[in-house]
Every structure is written in C-alpha cells, then in structure tokens.
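Structure in, sequence out. Go:
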C-alpha cells in the first residue's frame, strides 16, 4: 500500500483538543458528477467516493453502497449544512464508529498543532462499537480532564445539560470544545455512579515523552512515559533513549498506560528504536493486500525492557506493545489493552471539512487480530478503584505505583540474567 507517512492513524479516539494530520491524497470525482463542483452535492459525492475507493470492507458491511449514492445524489441540498447532514447519514449506514464526517470547525479539532500547544479539556473519546455510547478512551496527562479525575472507560452521559443518548462523536466534540477559559460540565457513568466534572477549557502543551532515571537493585534504569503517538513522539523518544544511555542505565521501563494511540508511522519508528530485527506490524486492506513494517537493523538499545500497559493503551500503543511482545523483546506488565486493530486515513475535503475512513486492519507480528480483544500482559497487575483514585500524576512511576514496582522487579531479574549471560560468554 502506498500510504502517506503522516496520514495513517490507528488511534481509536477523537482528540478534543487536536488530532491527526491529513493524508493530502487527492480525490478523483467521476466525470458524470464533474458538474457538481459548485453544488453542495459535490461534498456528498466526494464523501461517497472516498468510502467507495478506500473503505476496508469491500461489501461495505453489507450495505449496497451504490444504492446509497443514487439515493443521496438524487436529492437537492439547499446549503452546505444540509450536505453535511447527508454525509453523516451516509456514513452512519456503515455502522463503523471510526468512519465519520467532520464539518470545517470539527475538522480543525482533528488537526495536529505542530507547536504542540492545544486548546481544550484534553479528553479522548470514541463511540463504543457495542453500546453506541460515548466512551472515554483516555484523558491527556496533565490536562483538565486528567486532573479532575476522568478515567478510561468512563461513559459520558451528559454534556452540560444535554443527554448524549443517540449523539454521535462529532456532536459530542462540538459540545465539549470551546473557547479558552470557558466552562463545560461533563457527567460520566462509572459503574453504578454518575459523576459530574466541571472543567475549564485551556491551552495544553503536550510533550508526548517524559523520562527519568530510577534506582533499582540492579543499577539505574531508564523510565520513559509515552502519552501519545503524535508527530513529535519519535524524535522525543530518540532523544530520551540517548540521554538515558549516556547515564549508563541498565535497562528500560516503557510506560504506555492510558496512551490512546495516534500516528501509525510514529509507532513503527519507535518500535525500531528497540527492535533490531523482525516484523513490527502487518496491515491488510480490502483487496487482501498485506503490507509489513519491519525493523531496519538500527535499534538504539538492546538493553532489557519491560512495558507497562492498561485498558487505556489503544491502537498505536497496541502495535508497539504487540511488536515488542511477539518478538520476545519485552515483557508486558499491567492489564489488558483497549483492543482496536483498525487503521484510518484522515481526508481533507474540498470545502475544508474532512472525514476519517477505516482503510485497513492490522495484525501483530504473530498474526494476532487484537480488534475488540486487546493484548494480554505477560504479568497481570490490577489496581483497585481505590488505588486508581489515590494515584496522583506525581506518583506514576514511583513506589506508590504498584504496576510500576512490579515492572521494576521484573526488569531487575532481566538485567541480572543479561549480566550473568554476558559474564558466561567467552
């Protein structure tokens, strides 16, 4: 598959403060509809053709997609807004929450700000495929949503005074986002509880990587927390590994907990920093064409590695975790990941609106389809509700973090085994 490097996303989320870059791929309107260019119908046809050309399922999930075209292009639209509504109706027929239309304002919230400064509440959401409820994938670390205590798997039932029943992701995004310093109340259902969170929208400076040296019985180890696979995730990860290597760390803990995903190529580039050889991920499009991303023999470190995961680790996080696990490069510690094995392309449309369309499935190196299944850790460490609630941002990656302490214990064993093996070698 000839894919644009910046345009492929595997995040299961809508970022309410920003999202992914466009593919930049041109759309080719059929000659029979070339005369629609000045009409709202052009937008409807453009959306239809993107799906017709790129959608992962050639049966369109059992929908007669050509009949859909005849139905919607047989109508007249008095405005672009009417065309937008028609586009949403068309895509809803696919019953795919990840294939969605965005009007120009909504599309702006889906664009990566290259400065790394975002405006919003810092929450990532998706429509649950089974329940159709608006569900939190993960709050962005350090954001208003994170600081207030919103968690992965929380179900958003109300935004200010409006129920989210029957609401799609784009409508939820429109209600949650807003000007800096304005207020929004998000009510979530968590188990049997209904919890309101009063949030202030703000500018959020996101650096996807933070790192530090941690003491351990086996010597100093490098702790790297990766919170998002954005455009600058790979260069920041490279800088972190090199900085820690200069401090002679004996091994690494890579923390992917609550990382909702992002750019496909960012996950592959980071995998190559830890893997010297082997497959990273396989993708299969609707023609059954398989494309593999592989390590290139230029890893930055071969020191022992443990990876932390949880239910908020999704898509690009799962690609990275699956690659390291299947290639026996790292042990995974924590709880089962989110379970999204689909790839989207984000397209900018002619009038400044946009859409995300599912274009491929991905599989781990061993051929696992993790969609709706997730990746199981090698060592499961569950945290109770009380432990999750009491764990502050500052305590993540500390002795108060039980998943981290277990990962550190396992890493110590791996370091000791590596040192013993090195001493036994002639």
């Amino acid at each position: 598959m000839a894919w644009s490097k910046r345009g492929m996303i595997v995040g299961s989320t809508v970022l309410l403060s920003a999202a992914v870059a466009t593919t930049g791929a041109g759309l080719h309107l059929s000659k029979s509809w070339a005369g629609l260019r000045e009409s709202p119908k052009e937008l409807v046809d453009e959306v239809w053709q993107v799906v017709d050309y790129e959608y992962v399922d050639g049966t369109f999930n059992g929908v007669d997609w050509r009949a859909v075209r005849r139905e919607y292009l047989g109508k007249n639209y008095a405005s672009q807004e009417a065309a937008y509504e028609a586009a949403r109706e068309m895509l809803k027929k696919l019953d795919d929450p990840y294939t969605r239309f965005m009007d120009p304002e909504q599309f702006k919230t889906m664009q990566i700000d290259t400065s790394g400064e975002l405006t919003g509440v810092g929450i990532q959401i998706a429509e649950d495929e089974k329940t159709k409820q608006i569900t939190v994938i993960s709050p962005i670390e350090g954001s208003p949503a994170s600081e207030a205590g919103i968690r992965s798997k929380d179900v958003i039932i109300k935004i200010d005074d409006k129920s989210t029943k029957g609401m799609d992701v784009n409508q939820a995004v429109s209600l949650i986002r807003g000007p800096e310093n304005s207020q929004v109340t998000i009510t979530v259902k968590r188990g049997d509880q209904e919890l309101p969170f009063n949030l202030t929208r703000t500018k959020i400076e996101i650096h996807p990587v933070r790192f530090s040296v941690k003491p351990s019985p086996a010597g100093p180890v490098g702790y790297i927390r990766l919170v998002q696979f954005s455009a600058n995730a790979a260069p920041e990860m490279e800088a972190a590994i090199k900085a820690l290597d200069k401090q002679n760390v004996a091994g690494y803990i890579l923390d992917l907990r609550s990382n909702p995903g992002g750019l496909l190529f960012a996950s592959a580039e980071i995998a190559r920093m830890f893997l010297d050889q082997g497959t990273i991920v396989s993708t299969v499009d609707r023609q059954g064409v398989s494309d593999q991303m592989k390590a290139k023999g230029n890893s930055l470190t071969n020191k022992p590695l443990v990876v932390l995961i949880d239910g908020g680790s999704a898509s690009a996080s799962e690609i990275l975790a699956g690659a390291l696990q299947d290639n026996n490069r790292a042990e995974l510690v924590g709880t089962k990941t989110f379970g999204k094995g689909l790839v989207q392309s984000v397209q900018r449309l002619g009038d400044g609106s946009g859409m995300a369309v599912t274009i491929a499935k991905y599989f781990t190196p061993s051929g696992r389809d993790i969609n709706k299944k997730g990746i199981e850790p090698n060592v499961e460490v569950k945290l109770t509700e009380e432990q999750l609630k009491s764990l502050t941002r500052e305590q993540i990656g500390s002795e108060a973090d039980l998943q981290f302490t277990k990962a550190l214990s396992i890493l110590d064993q791996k370091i000791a085994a590596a040192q013993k093996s090195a001493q036994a070698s002639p």
